[in-house]
Specification:
Elements: H1 6-33, H2 39-49, H3 52-80, H4 88-118
Helix pairs in contact: 1-3, 3-4
């Protein structure tokens, strides 16, 4: 299952996406806590967080959350069904295909907004 095959890549991507989600939650908590320092500080932070690099980061976060959720379902099937381990390779490819399709779907909506905001 591991040793450079699909199982190892699933593990690495699941860990990386989980760390990215945790980092986002930390940044989100810091952003919310800036309101304690007054509207000037909070508004400056919001301007920074609405800049295009952070918006592309949110796009990447969406991809990470999508993969992490779908791969988590794959892990549940592996742990609680008899056929999950036998078919984990095919399920991982299914997770990747679904993740890419969902990423493309919301990129069609989000990327034009990011590009429009770059000029502002």
């Amino acid at each position: 299952m591991y040793r450079g095959r699909e199982g190892q890549w699933a593990f690495i991507l699941h860990r990386a996406s989980g760390i990215a989600i945790a980092l986002y939650l930390f940044i989100h908590a810091v952003n919310i806590s800036l309101a304690m320092f007054g509207p000037e500080v909070a508004n400056k932070a919001m301007v920074m967080f609405h800049s295009w690099p952070f918006r592309f980061g949110l796009l990447a976060l969406g991809a990470g959350v999508t993969y992490h959720a779908l791969n988590g379902l794959r892990l549940i099937f592996m742990d609680f069904t008899g056929w999950g381990v036998k078919n984990q390779r095919q399920m991982w490819y299914g997770v990747m295909v679904l993740s890419v399709l969902i990423f493309i779907a919301y990129s069609i909506k989000i990327v034009p907004e990011i590009i429009a905001g770059m000029g502002a």
